[in-house]
Amino acid sequence: xxxxxxxxxxxxxxxGVVIAMGTFVALGGEPSPVLxxxxxxxxxxxxxxxxxxxxxxxxxxxxxxxxxxxxxxxRMRREIERATRYGxxxxxxxxxxKSRRPRSMPSILRVVDDVIPCRRGVTLIxxxxxxxxxxxxxxxxxxxxxxxxxxxxxxxxxxxxxTTEELVAKLLTLIRxxxxxxxxxxxxxxxxxxxxxxxPRLQPx
Length: 205
Fold this sequence. Notes:
Blueprint: H1 4-26, H2 33-54, H3 66-86, E1 90-97, E2 114-117, E3 123-128, H4 132-144, E4 150-157, H5 164-175, E5 184-188, E6 193-196
Parallel strand pairs: 4-5
Antiparallel strand pairs: 1-3, 1-4, 2-3, 5-6
């Protein structure tokens, strides 16, 4: 466990110790080492259960809780199947700002587009029947409404894959790359690595 997960586990253990000591002090007795140890174990167990639950989703908690990730997987699977069947394109646009503040999407998005807030300040926008160039235009329009640079990652079916697993694997590689706010990154299949600012800048519609 790292980062926030480690802090959460420590907080649970500390809470267990405080509860045990507080109970005995309130009753006028001395803290019991056995009860304190029991509360530590219970607190650590609770932390491990919560952390484990957060990783039970289809993408091991990369985007959120199991229900959130299941909804992402199911929606992507439907759109990929539809795009493959009818020869259309399906694109996923991932956005993140350095401040990781929640963002409201401008009205340029369609009813069929899905906006899904995820962990670590990432927002996924699922864009049916939209090529990567269209996703780039949407990113540019959204960036105009933001007060700070926005990092963006773009993957598209069929160019970057024809299954949910392929698209998500490439998307996570892009999100975890060392690209900076203001960069737009895509996956370079020939060099098998993320490439920042490789897509041409397009004029807003």
